Amino acid sequence: MHASPQIGGMFAPLQLGGTVFPLVALLLLAIAIVAVYQAVEIVNAYEKRALTVFGEYRKLLEPGINFIPPFVSRTYTFDMRTQTLDVPRQEAITRDNSPVTADAVVYIKVMDARKAFLEVDDYKKAVSNLAQTTLRAVLGDMELDDTLNKRQEINAKIRKELDEPTDEWGIRVESVEVREVNPSKDVQQAMEQQTSAERKRRAMILEAQGERRSAVEKAEGDKQSNIIRAQGEKQSQILEAQGDAISTVLRAKSAESMGERAIIERGMETLEAIGQGESTTFVLPQELTSLVGRYGKHLTGGDVTSDGQLLEGLDFDAETREMLGLDDIEEILGQIDQEAEMDVESMEAEAEAIKTGADPAKIKDPDEVIAEMDGELETEAAGDGDDLETETN
């Protein structure tokens, strides 16, 4: 009866020990798993990590699998790629006391992760704050017009100011881009008014220049027209004088060629006119009666039988025929008829081309036209002088 309690009391510690052992084993297994997990550090290809053990900096972990002391280690990640930092909009006063607002973008890259870890608390925040103050300082040293026009110069100045402090942090500023520079509303209105006034001024200048150009072109055209008209009148007078001279020579040569026959014919015309009058008494010159008697020899069936000198006509000599162009009358008439024909359609086409400004003909300079006309007149005068010298010889 008493054996059972003793036996139960004997086996109680064994049962308790059998329950604790599995728990301890599970705990140790969990601790081992956690230790292995913390001892293995996988670093990405674009990263580097700073390792501290008990708060002491040890080294930089390179990309790949790294083993570190578990439970007492801590890592800090640094992205080694180019990173973009937005610089918030800043207000500044330019050197000519004009308020402006501007924002920018800064492109940075971690070159030394150790310095970025040990030399600065938060390198991104530090670079952003430094860029803000530098942007305000650069805008404050420039005129308003320069802040609006010299964007590249602003970028270069900001980058230069950021280079020295960021080098100590292991950071390189690759580029700075100012996105917008906006003056105040009052300044914008004043600039718009100034631009409008400038455009109006330029429009007035262009209009005045156009009117001046038009007046010059019109005066030049009138000048050329007057010159051409004067030259035409001059040529017309020359041709008219030449025609009168040729006509005088022709009449003289004609009278010389006809001789007495022409006098008799005019006398016969006069007798015919006298015969139509009412008077029955006629007075005839003796020279006319003698010439009529001589002329009777040429009449068929005339009763004048006395011998005398026959009336003969004179022909033009070779020089006169060449001067008057008697041998080329038909050719001259053909040329005149050909020049008289006008191509109406061609003239209308040329007029339309001139009206639209597409006339390919080039208007010569007035001095050039005068020089050409004078040259032609001198050539003609020299030719006439040679002809007269030939006649004289």
UniProtKB/TrEMBL annotation:
Family: Belongs to the band 7/mec-2 family.
Membrane topology: Single-pass membrane protein
UniProt keyword Nucleotide-binding, yes or no: no
Residues annotated as domain Band: 38-195
Compartment annotation: Membrane
Stretch forming the signal peptide: none
This protein's UniProt keywords: Membrane, Transmembrane, Transmembrane helix
Chain intervals for the UniProt region annotation (Disordered): 349-393
A Pfam family hit: Band_7
Sequence ranges of Acidic residues compositional bias: 368-393
Segments passing through the bilayer: 20-40
Keyword Membrane in record: yes
GO annotations of cellular component type: plasma membrane; side of membrane
Superkingdom, natural source: Archaea
Name listed for the protein in its UniProt record: SPFH/Band 7/PHB domain protein
